[in-house]
């Protein structure tokens, strides 16, 4: 079925309404199946001898897609990890600001702290922190040179003097400096050896330092991307290396980090962001097709436009399952243990 579906999507022969209904039904079925998924402890044990990070760290891989493509449909801050829509917030740019502010509130960041962000993507959070905490030193670690260069350019444009950006493979990353806060947004979704990652991070924290993590989780069971539609291009270019841990995962990292507080945000917030991204992408079709032509080739631009639309539709369906109560956005604040 997946092979047939893939061909129909590539040919543009699946009506939008039918596609959305198919995806919603698919994830409701998978949510039922996950009632018998792996418990958190078993899930963690499966990866105890794995390398630190997935070989495909970034959630979106394949040919390098330039920032100008993402500028066409993400919000002004280019935050690619959902958004937060409390009552009264209607615009994507506002919802981005709300999420960035909520992250820093949950992380209990104060001006003057030394902060390390791991997996900074296009630097939305790092730049926001540098602007709002001018006496802090912000170290931003991106996954590739293009992201690092963009963060540096934005920092210069904004006249920020307290932000430094780097590009590292986190399998090899190490630092001698200790930090008051370490921030990770969806990085753990691409981890393999969670205990090793927790151990390393704990060693980079000051004695009273804390780790803040945002994760895409399932409310109860551990799962990876194998349950998603088996479309080769989807896994190879968008979802490679992604794992969706259970919400309780951080409680199993207590050898190095103690859980101080956790929050579960409805998947509806992410769903609304994905719907808004999709709507913007559709309105920008004529502008994004030349960009996709440079990345994938002129004969492939419309194909990849449809695939990007499918990916955003998939995110919407995933996070909208059971009114956003199945897959969710999880926030955690963890304290370094004194013995580390």
Can you characterise this structure?
- With 340 residues, this protein is of the alpha/beta class.
- The chain is built from twelve helices and nine strands.
- The strands form two sheets. It has a seven-stranded mixed beta sheet, with helices on both faces. Strands 6-7 form a two-stranded antiparallel ribbon.
- β2, α7 and β3 (163-167) form a beta-alpha-beta unit.
- The model is unreliable at 57-61 (pLDDT under 50).
Produce the secondary structure layout.
Elements: H1 2-10, H2 16-33, H3 40-46, H4 67-70, H5 92-107, E1 114-118, H6 124-132, E2 137-142, H7 145-157, E3 163-167, E4 179-185, H8 194-203, E5 205-218, E6 223-224, H9 232-237, E7 243-244, E8 257-265, H10 267-283, H11 285-296, H12 301-320, E9 327-336
Parallel strand pairs: 1-2, 1-4, 2-3, 4-5
Antiparallel strand pairs: 5-9, 6-7, 8-9
Helix pairs in contact: 2-12, 10-12, 11-12
CATH architecture: 3-Layer(aba) Sandwich
The CATH class name reads Alpha Beta
Give the beta-strand count: 9
CATH 4th-level superfamily:
Vaccinia Virus protein VP39
Assembly context of the chains: single chain
Backbone structural class:
alpha/beta
Provide the gyration radius in Å.
19 Å
Percent strand? 15-25%
Largest sheet: 7 strands, mixed
Order of helices and strands: HHHHHEHEHEEHEEHEEHHHE
User: What overall form do the CA principal axes indicate?
Assistant: globular
Q: State the end-to-end CA separation.
A: 50 Å
The side-by-side strand order for the widest beta sheet comes to 3-2-1-4-5-9-8
Average predicted local confidence, pLDDT: 88
| Share of helix, binned | 40-55%
